[in-house]
Design goal:
about 80 residues; about 75% helix
Length: about 80
């Protein structure tokens, strides 16, 4: 139960609606069929890397614009 309590405390501290929505979508995807299966099939290291990446994405200074991402990805598309 401690994990749920910690999660509730974290959620209660978040004021940004967009961040809350992102968390909600992430949690829903883990609990729903295909996405949950995909996550469950990851190794512990892959799950840890995913968590680190997600946590870093919550810091706006780590983000790039959509335009810059698309320019970078256009090389492979």
């Amino acid at each position: 139960m401690a994990v749920k309590e910690q999660l509730h405390k974290i959620i209660d501290q978040i004021e940004d609606e967009a961040v809350l929505n992102a968390y909600m979508q992430l949690l829903q995807s883990f609990s729903e069929g295909e996405y949950g299966q995909l996550f469950n099939n990851l190794s512990k290291d892959q799950k840890a890397q995913l968590e680190v990446s997600y946590q870093r994405s919550l810091n706006p200074s780590n983000l790039i614009t959509h335009e810059k991402a698309m320019n970078t990805l256009s090389k492979w598309l």
